């Protein structure tokens, strides 16, 4: 592949790179990119915008699966409004890529700071036993439920 | 080993399941790792199942739940 412009053109041997990385990594790359954005270092240094990322079916205002909806509702209860979502129904390669990336067979999938937290069942259990408040706090998010507790 | 499997697909067609697994293997492992253990055992099955709800418990957690 030739890339670049005005004298800065260069040849990137995509086939060679693909061969070197192997099929598993290649499939996961798209998902990794979805999590980290273009600037990988931002997310690694935990200053990225993508503190909470959800791979789901549909969008938060219109989830197309009960389990995705449950995740959205749990986050809403904790006052988490600003998070990045990806609708895997719109992109089959992302749907498969994220499963490969996180080694997790089902959607939805929740990530805090690029780290896989779990799917619907795990998030629900974390919500029920209070772990979610703690985990949110670790990534710098004050849960609305925690706020309630301090008020009381 | 206590284990519960419920077919929750519409019309019980065997595509959606709610599963509770109690095992000493879960002892001392975080929940994510417990789920991963089960997922790895069901790798092939999960590819064709539509929905899979899982709850994992250690023997102690199972006993405590029964008391409640």
From TrEMBL, chain A:
Keywords noted in UniProt: 2Fe-2S, Iron, Iron-sulfur, Metal-binding, Redox-active center
One GO process term, biological-process aspect: hemopoiesis
GO CC terms: mitochondrial matrix
PROSITE patterns: GLUTAREDOXIN_2
Domain of life: Eukaryota
Record keyword Metal-binding present: yes
Gene Ontology terms, MF aspect: 2 iron, 2 sulfur cluster binding; metal ion binding
Keyword Iron: yes
One protein family per Pfam: Glutaredoxin
Glutaredoxin domain: residues covered: 52-117
Name assigned to this protein: Glutaredoxin-related protein 5, mitochondrial
Gene source species: Eptatretus burgeri
UniProtKB/TrEMBL annotation, chain B:
Alphabetized SUPFAM superfamilies for the sequence: BolA-like (SSF82657)
Pfam families: BolA (PF01722)
UniProt-listed GO biological process terms: intracellular iron ion homeostasis; protein maturation
Domain of life, source organism: Eukaryota
GO molecular function terms noted in the UniProt entry: 2 iron, 2 sulfur cluster binding
Entry GO terms, CC: cytosol; nucleus
Protein family membership: Belongs to the BolA/IbaG family.
Name of protein: BolA family member 2B
UniProt source species: Eptatretus burgeri
